[in-house]
Design a protein that fits this description.
MetI-like fold
């Protein structure tokens, strides 16, 4: 197990280098807007643009820019300075990360509670009315775009524009000062972000449970006279939940990496996704690179956690 974890860590570090090279190539080598021109403004002259390009290090060869960036990131955890805000990218990310963590934790709790429960009930009551209704509803939520669900939720329940103004609306998280106010401001974003994901988890859990319920060890447990509830909870669910662990690790890492960009934009949440959206709009290449590498770290880290958790959730898994 120890050697396996070390191999996975080394592979994760290699993936971070590959991601940094790919992102650098896409945003610095391929045609894009000139950050120096964007930072100088509309009325800047060629000399001023050249000075800004020199101060940003954009006049150096591409390979030299990349080596400097890699050295700063992996040796000093320094993602450089934002072209737009003129502050360290690390500071920008850490200032926005708490809002994204708030959004992610609440959404994960909701979609796990709803998705796993619905999936287990649908599998146990296969082909019943409950099963068909839940799977049809799940398909509807999967098909609905996140931004559309967010706008509908604001129109119906936001306290500023909603038809039934019972919950805080757009921009309420930034103005919230207490923990309870922050939690209340996140109810709509949590539900919107968790809607489609819980539907996916319900369908995955149902399919995995149906496959597991047909295994020999389930029939053996029933033949021993164990109660059906015990068979489902201790044997079927434990084996069927392993694919969900993989999904959860990826989803949490991706959300923390800024993939909740639509939800954060619709509800005006000052998170990492919103920061990435603003950086793309103004071609803030350093910020885009920093968020991408920061997100890659989260994805690699949670994948490592998932691989370790597999050994405890499924005894059939063996690492060599």
């Amino acid at each position: 197990m120890g050697r396996y974890i070390i191999r996975r860590i080394l592979w994760g570090i290699a993936m971070l280098f590959i991601v940094s090279a790919a992102v650098f190539f896409i945003f610095y080598v391929l045609p894009s807007a000139d950050p120096a021109v964007l930072r100088a403004g509309r009325n800047a002259g060629p000399q001023q643009i050249a000075q800004i390009r020199h101060s940003l290090g954009l006049d150096k060869p591409i390979w030299e820019q990349y080596l400097i960036y890699v050295r700063q990131v992996f040796l000093h955890f320094d993602f450089g300075y934002s072209y737009q805000y003129n502050v360290p990218v690390r500071q920008l990310i850490f200032s926005r990360l708490p809002a994204t963590i708030w959004l992610t934790i609440g959404a994960v709790i909701i979609w796990l509670s709803v998705g796993l429960t619905v999936g287990i009930i649908s599998a146990v009551r296969r082909r019943s009315f409950v099963d068909r209704a839940s799977m049809t509803t799940s398909l509807a939520f999967i098909s609905a775009p996140v931004f559309w669900l967010g706008l509908v939720a604001l129109y119906l329940f936001a306290n500023d524009i909603g038809q039934f103004p019972i919950l805080p609306g757009q921009g309420s998280f930034a103005s919230a000062s207490t923990v309870f106010q922050k939690a209340a401001s996140m109810i709509l974003p949590w539900c919107v972000l968790a809607a489609a994901t819980s539907a996916v988890y319900a369908r995955y859990m149902r399919a995995s449970m149906i496959d597991t319920m047909g295994e020999d060890y389930i029939r053996t447990a029933r033949a021993k006279g164990l109660p059906e509830r015990t068979v489902i909870r201790r044997h079927a669910v434990r084996s069927a939940i392993t694919p969900i662990v993989t999904l959860l690790g990826l989803d949490v890492g991706i959300l923390l990496a800024g993939n909740a960009i639509l939800t954060e934009t619709v509800f005006n949440i000052p998170g990492v996704g919103r920061l990435l959206y603003n950086a793309i709009n103004v071609s803030d290449l350093t910020t885009i690179q920093g968020i991408t590498l920061f997100g890659a770290f989260f994805i690699v880290f949670f994948n490592l956690i998932v691989d370790i958790a597999y050994a405890y959730l499924d005894p059939r898994v063996r690492y060599t």
